[in-house]
Design brief:
heterotrimer, A mainly alpha (282), B alpha+beta (354), C mainly alpha (294), B: 354 residues, OB fold (Dihydrolipoamide Acetyltransferase, E2P), four-stranded antiparallel sheet, elongated, C: 2 strands
Chain lengths: 282, 354, 294
């Protein structure tokens, strides 16, 4: 629509710029803090411009960590986070693809019950059943292991529903043509359905990768061995060095590193990210 | 090359019958068209033959073998779908090859058949493209190609031309006919378009309500519709169906001698004329409501003075008639199709398919 | 429930396909949930040797416990504030982005990334901003004559967690509002413009009513978020303090169960929370069903 209201345009951009600043400022401050040295925080106000200690701080955190705070080098925690986020994302996608396939392309006696069992997981976030879930994992001997960190989080109703929704939009004829062409159920799944689901899988991967990366409570409960710490929970330990003021520059270096991977994923895969986010919630 | 036999074939969805007992023998190399309004059971019937729909009771024999329990892939048929159902992520070549690969056809044989089909359908240059890069007509050809490469006992067509625009539809119709003649593959073809059915079929099966209304060659069905339903369905514009009382006052009514039980007569629009001929004929006074010139002929919508019935005439050229004018419509007694409303059937003679 | 027109005839295969999902669900979701329900009716002696069945005693005690009532009140204030605050800001930004043409991709990119920041990291960021001794916010507030110390002042602590939790949720709400705005037919606003409605009037009389499905959806999602996904934010900023001022229900379950080792009470709290989620989910799905009909 052609409309010329210069003041309104000005206002629009003003609102957006303020919004962007508001959103970015806390992160900017954290980054700035991570470039300063030990003594720069004694003045009574955080520095507002970057300092000269960037490389030094980051190298220290990546390679050594802060042993006094019980935090291993960051590269270990970062790689744990990466491994866990990938296992969770891939695992969720895999089991959701299979179960959505079963629900849409087959008729069997307990289909509705299966659907409801999956549906129920929506209503039981880990935060509300922490203790008994912890007990199960402990009883199975899965504390301090990648399996214990990931497996209990891998069931996914939303991913299953997304794939179900998508499968229902695939024309019936495609499956019929494949059957006439001699494809059995697994062949159809592999040759036709998986390739067609590519975009959905990618979009979902972005969302689930972030989901896995930002997990906090669960890793905190099931890991006591620092070899299995993830970066998100590790930071909390760094920051919470009880009595003393935290060593801000190092904590913020860790914070920046912990934010970077998922934020980069969002920025560089924005289209997939938006698709994944908006569609999983439908 | 094969025959298809359907014996008392029935299909119920729950307690709702969709196909109510169909008997049909398709001869080797014959193209049979199943035609009828939507919901008449024609697609269900075809899909039962394909093995995509379970059979409630009855037998399906393809090439003499009972296939009711067989998987679609084991029936030696190929199917062309309305929306083409091309695998969107595969190239045209991939689409053609997929069924052959699944059957373990040797590579040289696959290449030979793909090349042959591509030559027949003139899609050679498109083999490495994806379906979405093709036009509707080209996709249709690829869908045909996918059926041809299989060299099946029978082709099943499920409204294959419905998604094309009018012009392309006529063109593809001719091509399908030519192709079928050339390959001589037994074919079942489903459509709701009666013109498509008339032009394509060796024999025509008119279906309604899960039953066969009439089976015959297109000319048989057109010239002697067995039921009121067929009379109204086949032919465009449709046959005029009038109660006998509408003719009562017409001069010459006494010469008719309609068969006993007749209470409805059908008259094709092109059998109603504005000029009387030498032969004895009925004369019906009417008022012109609308004149639609459609090129070489015109459709004249009129209303009979007697009983206020609307009729359509198909007249040659563009007659100079004002709307609202009074005319006299003539029809020869021999062109009347007598029916009984209650039974829905012809009353003059027994017809081909009861 | 819907399937394909034709289905594969296999009998065993669907069960095999579903097995992994169902196994994980049963072992890590359903079974623990049932355990929670069970222990919410039991009392365990201090050494864990003996449990007795005590009917609703845990619940009775819970609802009589002032600290639980306090946590419920905090949760209410927190959830409503976060929802209103975050949604209004997001709507404003979404409307603005919807008005600009060339730069909207850029603005979108700059506004959506906080979605990827972990809640606990969000907590640390804002904790740093509001740190009473070195934070920039208290420094600026001092200039305005406000003395900020959320370690002592409960209302300030609540304000801090609300701000942090809202900040994190802006990107999510923003994206859904943008999607909602884009689905408002251009022809409608054009018709309104021809009818003489100015931009603000058009928004309130045409666009906003048409956004109501999105708004309602986000309302539920945000309440859900504030109640359950903000554990990390609370833990990193205030840990429920000072003096329980920011202790919300989901944090209390954890604190009582893991730190306080009060299994029966924590289990009863879990069950109450489950009921809340069930209600929220039911509302959300009823609404989704309605939307499908449109």
């Amino acid at each position: 629509m052609v409309e010329n209201r210069p003041f309104l345009s000005f206002l629009t951009h003003l609102v957006l710029i303020i919004g962007v600043v508001l959103v970015a400022f806390p992160v900017y401050l954290a980054f700035v803090a991570s470039t300063h040295g030990e003594g720069d925080f004694l003045s009574g106000l955080v520095p507002l411009w970057p300092g000269p200690h960037l490389i030094e701080n980051y190298r220290l955190m990546l390679t050594e960590g802060i042993s006094t705070a019980g935090a291993p080098p960051l590269w270990i925690m970062l790689s744990n986070s990466l491994i866990i986020a990938i296992i969770i994302a891939v695992g969720k996608i895999a089991i959701s693809l299979l179960s959505a396939y079963a629900i849409v392309f087959f008729k069997f006696r307990f289909r509705l019950i299966a659907f409801w069992i999956i549906f129920i997981t929506l209503m039981l976030p880990v935060e509300v059943r922490i203790i008994p879930t912890f007990k199960v994992v402990a009883d199975l001997g899965l504390l301090n292991s990648y399996v214990g960190l990931t497996l209990p989080l891998i069931a996914s109703a939303t991913a299953t529903f997304l794939f179900r929704q998508f499968f229902l939009t695939i024309p019936d004829e495609l499956m019929e043509a494949a059957r006439v062409d001699g494809a059995g159920p697994m062949k159809f799944f592999r040759d036709i359905l998986l390739p067609l689901s590519r975009t959905n899988i990618a979009a979902l991967f972005v969302i689930l990768f972030i989901y896995g990366w930002v997990q906090y409570l669960w890793p905190m409960l099931v890991t006591t061995d620092s070899r299995y710490y993830t970066v998100v929970m590790g930071i909390k330990r760094l920051a919470a060095t009880a009595d003393a003021e935290p060593r801000w520059h190092l904590v913020m270096a860790a914070v920046t590193l912990a934010m970077l991977p998922p934020v980069l994923v969002v920025i560089f895969m924005q289209r997939l990210f938006i698709k994944g986010l908006v569609e999983t919630e439908k | 090359m094969a025959t298809i036999n359907l014996v008392d074939l029935k299909k119920n969805y729950g307690s709702v019958p969709a196909v109510k007992g169909i008997n049909l023998s398709v001869k080797d190399g014959e193209l049979i068209v199943l035609v009828g309004p939507s919901g008449c059971g024609k697609s269900t019937l075809l899909r039962m033959v394909a093995g995509l729909e379970s059979v409630t009771s009855g037998r399906i024999e393809i090439a003499g073998r009972d296939v009711v329990k067989a998987e679609p892939a084991e029936r030696d048929i190929a199917m062309v779908f309305q929306n083409y159902a091309l695998y969107p992520h595969m190239t045209v070549r991939g689409n053609l090859e997929y069924g052959l690969k699944n059957r373990g056809t040797p590579r040289e044989e696959i290449d030979r058949r793909v090349k042959e089909a591509a030559d027949i359908l003139e899609i050679g240059p498109m083999l490495d493209r994806k379906p979405r890069q093709l036009s509707g007509g080209q996709r249709q050809r690829v869908a045909m190609g996918r059926a041809i490469v299989r060299e099946p006992a029978a082709f099943l067509f499920d409204e294959p031309l419905s998604n094309l625009d009018a012009k392309l539809r006529v063109q593809m119709r001719v091509e399908i006919r030519k192709l079928q003649r050339r390959l001589k593959t037994t074919s079942l073809y489903v459509t709701h378009d009666q013109l498509e059915a008339m032009t394509l079929a060796d024999r025509l099966v008119v279906m309604n309500n899960g039953l066969v209304e009439q089976l015959g060659t297109p000319t048989e069905v057109y010239d002697r519709p067995a039921t009121l339903f067929v009379a109204g369905f086949i032919g465009s514009p449709p046959m005029n169906l009038l109660p006998v009382s509408a003719l009562d006052a017409a001069s010459g009514f006494d010469i008719l001698g309609l068969p006993p039980g007749t209470d409805v007569v059908g008259i094709r629009p092109d059998h109603l004329t504005l000029e009387s001929s030498d032969e004895p004929s009925l004369a019906l006074p009417a008022t012109v409501e609308l004149l639609e010139p459609i090129g070489g002929e015109s459709h004249l919508h009129a209303r009979l003075k007697n009983g206020d019935h609307a009729v359509i005439l198909s007249v040659p050229g563009r007659p100079e008639i004002e709307e609202g004018a009074t005319i006299t419509i003539h029809v020869k007694p021999a062109d009347l199709h007598p029916f009984n409303r209650e039974s829905g059937r012809r009353t003059d003679t027994a017809v081909a398919n009861p | 429930m819907q399937t394909k027109r034709t289905i594969f005839p296999n009998k065993l295969l669907p069960y095999i396909l579903l097995a992994p999902q169902l196994a994980v669900t049963l072992i890590f979701f359903i079974w623990p949930a049932m355990q929670a329900v069970k222990s919410s009716f039991e009392r365990e002696d201090p050494f864990g040797f003996k449990t007795t069945f005590i009917w609703f005693d845990n619940y009775k005690r819970l609802f009589a416990d002032p600290s639980y009532i306090n946590a419920a009140g905090n949760t209410f204030v927190f959830a409503i504030s976060v929802t209103v605050f975050s949604m209004s800001l997001s709507l404003l930004l979404a409307v603005a982005v919807n008005r600009v043409l060339r730069t909207n991709r850029l603005y979108t990119t700059l506004l959506v990334w906080p979605y990827a920041v972990a809640p606990v990291v969000v907590g640390i960021l804002w904790w740093f901003m509001f740190n009473p001794s070195i934070g920039i916010a208290p420094y600026l507030l001092r200039g305005l004559g406000v003395s900020w110390n959320h370690r002592i002042d409960g209302s300030q602590a609540m304000l801090l967690v609300i701000i942090a939790a809202s900040w994190k949720q802006i990107s999510y709400n923003f994206l859904f509002f943008v999607a909602g705005l884009q689905s408002v037919p251009q022809s409608l606003t054009e018709a309104a413009a021809i009818d003489g409605a100015g931009p603000f009037k058009r928004f309130w009389t045409i666009v906003f009513p048409l956004l109501s499905p999105t708004t309602f959806f986000l309302l539920i999602v945000n309440i859900n978020y504030a109640m359950f996904d903000t554990f990390g934010i609370i833990d990193a900023t205030t840990a429920g303090g000072p003096a329980q001022a920011t202790n919300i229900l989901v944090y209390k379950v954890y604190a009582d169960g893991f730190l306080g080792l009060n299994i029966g009470s924590s289990a009863a709290q879990s069950v109450v929370l489950m009921l809340i989620v069930i209600v929220l989910t039911a509302i959300q799905f009823r609404y989704v069903e309605r939307r499908v009909q449109y």
